[in-house]
Amino acid sequence: MRSLHSVSERSRRWLRVSALSLGAVIMLTSCSGTADPSARVDAGSGTGTITVWALDGQSAENEAIQKIMDDFEKSNGDITIDMQFIPADQFTTALQTASDEELPDVVEVDGPLIANFAYLNRIAPIDDWVSKDTIENQTAAIKGQNTVDGDLYAVGMMNSGLAMWGNKKLLDAAGVTMPSSAADAWTAEEFSDVLDKLAALDPDGRPFGLAENNGFSTEYGIYAFAPVLWSAGTPLIEDGRASGALDSETAVEAVETWASWRQYTDPDTDGVAFQSGRVALNWMGNWLYPAYKEALGDDLVVGPLPDFGQGAKTGSGTIAWSMGGATKNATAAGALLDYLMSDEVVNEYTSANGAPPATTTALTASALYGDGKPLAYLSAQLNSACPTEDTLKVDCVAVSRPITAGYPVVTAEFGKALSAVWGGADAAESLSAAARAIDRDFVDNDDYK
């Protein structure tokens, strides 16, 4: 069993992988492969050796992944796994520059880059190679992330979600009660009033944290704060363009409101503003629950992010498992994917790292996320999935980052705009510049057709 620390590190790696990989992805997005990606895949014999690429983590987590692969081999004696761990800062380049012969049969992929990998034929649709039961057991939220143009390209063992975390002792002192459901979320105006109340009792007047130490021009920026726009009712990309969506009046007003909270925000340079009690409220994902629980105990409460007008929203999505775009043994690759999505494996994996399971059976049975369990609220958010930004509604909560092969430029430009506005730049100008840059990239790449 993995240590909690090592696996939590793995569950957070999605914040780093995309950021480290953006340059490589942007350089290579100008060339795509065959119109029918399935044509490059062969069924194979269902036996023999298959190559698996996984992200190289700490020794304990690598040992755990290796154990899962070893257990699969024991129960599937005709299949041998050639396991290769690749460092995060080399992973995307390795996948995108590999020849067809060098591509793995099964590969761990960073969720928001799936559409880009699919566009480049680095991965293949898996609908025909995994069981119907595996597909049906995937939660709607994770299927949204893993589906491109109607084809399923990956399956997920885990998911992720955001929430507002609170210190009940500090909230009670200010007469503030955390909302318990997305339907009861504070409006943006109400949240400003809450911050006023908390600031009045806070030594430095900064009772709020949103992990500014992660940086907003990183992958964290789009994951954590795209929900601001979604909650206001606007996607980042609409009908293949950012102009009119990312820079809409609705988006500008929402981002201006978000930036107005800087006066209440602890810069959190040490990353422990919430755990140490410096802030009463913290905007953060599920992966820090173990640290929060250890620090606050029964004073830890959880609720929705603010509602900017069209319902509270959260980001979702993370690392998933896919099939190499030119595998010659898709039958065996599919068998491994089915095994990785089994209750036994998913339960072991997610009970160790604290992430929400991405299968309905494991999510229901989870000791953390099941009915009546400590993080049932986060489970309810993920079960209320939009699940993509082109299907936003008031009464759905979990949304995947934009599903587009141009995602790398979307996240880079959105992050730059967020950083600029947070630093005092004009929101309309910053978002308009981001939208123009994104649309120019799309036009230059023939809209990634």
Automatic annotation (TrEMBL):
PANTHER family: ARABINOSE-BINDING PROTEIN-RELATED, DIACETYLCHITOBIOSE BINDING PROTEIN DASA. Keywords: Signal, Sugar transport, Transport. It comes from Microbacterium natoriense. Gene3D superfamilies: Periplasmic binding protein-like II. Residues 1-35 form the signal peptide. InterPro entries: Bact_solute-bd_prot1, SBP. Transmembrane segments: none annotated. The keyword Signal applies. It comes from the Bacteria. This is Multiple sugar transport system substrate-binding protein.
